[in-house]
Automatic annotation (TrEMBL):
Family recorded in the similarity comment: Belongs to the sigma-70 factor family. ECF subfamily.
Alphabetical keyword list: DNA-binding, Sigma factor, Transcription, Transcription regulation
CDD domains: Sigma70_r4
Matching InterPro entries: RNA_pol_sigma-70-like, RNA_pol_sigma-70_dom, RNA_pol_sigma70_ECF_CS, RNA_pol_sigma70_r2, RNA_pol_sigma70_r4, RNA_pol_sigma_r2, RNA_pol_sigma_r3/r4-like, WH-like_DNA-bd_sf
Keyword Transcription: yes
Gene3D superfamilies hit by this protein: 1.10.1740.10, Winged helix-like DNA-binding domain superfamily/Winged helix DNA-binding domain
Official protein name in the record: RNA polymerase sigma factor
Domain RNA polymerase sigma-70 region: 36-104, 137-185
Highest taxon of source: Bacteria
Region annotation (Disordered) ranges: 1-26
Amino acid sequence: MAIDATANAVTTTGEPGVPAPAAPRPTLDQDVLAELYRLHGGYLLRAMLRVTSGDRGKAEDIVQETLLRAWQNPAAMHRGPEHSRPWLFTVARRIAIDHYRMQTARAQEVADEAPEDHAGSHDPYDEVLVARDMAAAMAGLQPHHRDVLVELHMKGRSMAEVARVLGVPVGTVKSRNFYAVRALRPILEAQGMAWAG
């Protein structure tokens, strides 16, 4: 015996057999979305330009899709636009990875080589996240320590070059580097990162 479920269905309107209209999905307020773009759009675009090797069209597409997802997920912005950058970067990273995977999947389909012959691709997205995390960790250091780390380890300058750039003796550069690394190491370990310098 088959039972017709729609015959017994009663909706909030009280009409049998007529399904209730779906409640509209909440979206982010237009002013909040504009504030998100104002605060974070430039940072997102610069990061995505690095990820896409300077392809501005792809980078802008990723930023636009990221903001669209923010618009569709107002609950993710509950702390306010000024605190939304980590969420936005995570979403942008996932979108960029999806774009990258789609692009490489298409290229593999066309290629004559077997998948096992194809060397593993370099994934630049993790580098962007590591750079962002490193910048956040270094923000907790004193400026003179941060300057030495940037010049010595990120720009790859010698001790003598750093001393000349910063206008301090070489011994001071060595001392500041020692204390900066010592101060940075527990910050990185707390974030699950390790100092590679």
